Amino acid sequence: xxxxxxxxxxxxxxxxxxxxxxxxxxxxxxxxxxxxxxxxxxxxxxxxxxxxxxxxxxxxxxxxxxxxxxxxxxxxxxxxxxxxxxxxxxxxxxxxxxxxxxxxxxxxxxxxxxxxxxxxxxxx
Amino acid sequence: xxxxxxxxxxxxxxxxxxxxxxxxxxxxxxxxxxxxxxxxxxxxxxxxxxxxxxxxxxxxxxxxxxxxxxxxxxxxxxxxxxxxxxxxxxxxxxxxxxxxxxxxxxxxxxxxxxxxxxxxxxxxxxxxxxxxxxxxxxxxxxxxxxxxxxxxxxxxxxxxxxxxxxxxxxxxxxxxxxxxxxxxxxxxxxxxxxxxxxxxxxxxxxxxxxxxxxxxxxxxxxxxxxxxxxxxxxxxxxxxxxxxxxxxxxxxxxxxxxxxxxxxxxxxxxxxxxxxxxxxxxxxxxxxxxxxxxxxxxxxxxxxxxxxxxxxxxxxxxxxxxxxxxxxxxxxxxxxxxxxxxxxxxxxxxxxxxxxxxx
Amino acid sequence: xxxxxxxxxxxxxxxxxxxxxxxxxxxxxxxxxxxxxxxxxxxxxxxxxxxxxxxxxxxxxxxxxxxxxxxxxxxxxxxxxxxxxxxxxxxxxxxxxxxxxxxxxxxxxxxxxxxxxxxxxxxxxxxxxxxxxxxxxxxxxxxxxxxxxxx
Lengths: 124, 359, 151
Hints:
The structure holds 3 protein chains of 3 kinds. By secondary structure, chain B is α+β, with helices and mostly antiparallel strands.
């Protein structure tokens, strides 16, 4: 399948990129008028997998970052205003170190008692 | 410069069915900024993947929200079915599509009633909820439940609709068309509704796209995007034309949702004509391994279901990005520059579902 | 069912409910189920309310809100917990952000089970609440008479 065909297939294309490529790739998407669809995080053994999904028409493209639990990630809220909700949520629930989120809700988006509940897994 | 005051709005408010808190920064009566404060409905249900296995998570997914319940269950099931390469039978897909469109009808009628009630238009609230009861009767007859049905499972659906029942439903939907037209025309033509909704809460096409708006919020600003065109469930066999407006104000958002009511009636008729025979589920063995992003068109807009599995019976992650979560930045934008008296109406025109947002 | 001279006013508040029970509560107030035929009226103001219908579990964000609404309601008052989540926490009991049912925060008089609770059960709960309200009202009136006599 070509890249174009994969992006329109169900589930879209998932592409892993290094952290330093995040902002340049996101700015490319913004210039090409892609819509920010969602951002989510998954906790794996000592690592975080962050997925930034964009949509253009019916094409769906996810940029994937795999980072260590102490690594820092730049915020994309200066490029996409609506990213602040997703990034505040990731920081509050997962403990992902995201720098310069605008606006920064200081871990008070959900105002929960438990600190970073998703940062570790408990098998039950 | 006028003096700024901060007025708290919510979490308990006669117009809001759900708790959300907004700090409205006002200059005289004009809203300069709205700062949201959520978390009242946050349960943290996505972490239940560690305690419940992937089959039981269908029940948790359904209870993210009672209004959008069916499609949450279906979106989750379709994501897992894609990971496990399950071939869902055609009849199950059509049944899912029928229940999806019925969910859309009941959700939009619910929204119309709540919006009318916020105007003080109580009789219209009662009429639209009475019409909604007819749809809930059909849900109860076919699934056993009125709001939470528990009829989705990985591999298909749990209950079938016999042909006589389906014929009866189609007849009832045909009869509903005329009543709906009368009800919606009363709403759209009313003088106060026009005065309060027209030219209020503008969202341009560029703003809608850059703020990540979805669903009727996006379509009312001129973007022709409806996830049903990607062909999930049985939508690939049906003719779906997105209902779009180019005006971008609150009235346009109402018109789009009301247009979708009639579109759902048409889609239900198409499903009735094309419903195939056959099994309603296939057995599914083993555990899922892999990941998938599933997108569905909920009544409030595009919902993204991300499931990641590792070969055991407990998933690594189930993440639901609900439409209202995506619409909140756009809602905050429409509140800027509005009058204090318009705030409850503007919030209702995005059709908020806070329990979906906060999970 | 007790016969009342005055019609109690209902206040509905959503704790951390999924909305299922909330829309069934609203469905009780609309045609077909219509709880107003028993003389109860829905209000949005805690200071006017006699019966509090709560749906959904309690978490730390809404605990203070629920306590404030309860304290704002004048005596006598009755609390009805509608739905499995309000009774015990329901399917979300094991979630990190849910403390449990409504009785972890305020005293509950009537528990209505179900997920989502059906309108018939909710009306049954409201009718029983009207009976409990009548008892509390008579007790409140007689205690006030005693207090006036002794002062």
